[in-house]
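Incident review: delayed structure delivery

Summary: a single-chain prediction request sat in the queue longer than the usual turnaround. Root cause was a stuck worker, restarted by the on-call engineer. No data loss occurred. The affected request and its eventual output are reproduced below so the record is complete for anyone auditing the incident later.

Affected input:
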Amino acid sequence: MGAGADVVVITGAGGMGSATARRIGTGSTVVLADVDEQLLEREVVALTAIGYYAVGHPVDVSSKDSVEALAAAAADRGPVAAVVHTAGLSPVQASVDAILRVDLLGTALVLDAFGAVVAPGGAGVCISSMAGSMATLDPGFERRLATTPTGHLLELAELAPGAIPDPATAYVIAKRANQVRVRAASLAWGRRGARVNSISPGVIATPMGSAELDGPSGAVMQAMIAGSGTGRIGTPEDVAGVVDFLVSRAAGYVTGTDVLVDGGVVASLHAPPS
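Output delivered after worker restart:
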């Protein structure tokens, strides 16, 4: 099948990335990127088999050179109409250092690199987490997370080795950073005539979500799901549907904000006792 006129870039080939490619990739060239080249190849083959025009591009989102190479390769294929950054690590998967490099720095690098190539009228979505919406960080720290030049982001004193006690705390900081970083980046994207937002999913039925449910915080997470307005775990398609809206013309007046897609978990935590 031939290439589409526009280019849709998706980082992260599993779970939410796969569902998003199927939801928004019809008629476009889908550039799918992941650090796991075997997973990437399998997903490209699967997309191609059902009629999408998909190409794979290995990427390490924690590497400036790797992310910039992805952005350049995508732009070479045509106007970059949508960028959806789903790649990330969870607390049960990685160390504090790896979470800061992939989840925090990686998002900042994607915002910078694609903010320089996204087409006018284009849109970006970065996947954060409801954990970021539950964070209580010092306002000065949040401001530094939002505005520190990307090359110096990991030099912040609050992110120094030993300053963060565990991967779960690193994850909360990184995901709140994603939200405020997107908010700040929306101005630069806007100067190109483009928009960028973040989505904060709750517990989603992906391999990452399942690993978290089986991890040390699993019982707490199950209780939060049970107490939410929907009372269920989310699906990748729940997230992909919101991505579809945010990159569409229907969301043309929406930029620099975060959308909770958590089944009502955060709302339930703030609701008065019944």
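Verification: The domain at 7-261 is CATH 3.40.50.720 (Rossmann fold).
Action items: add queue-age alerting; document worker restart procedure.
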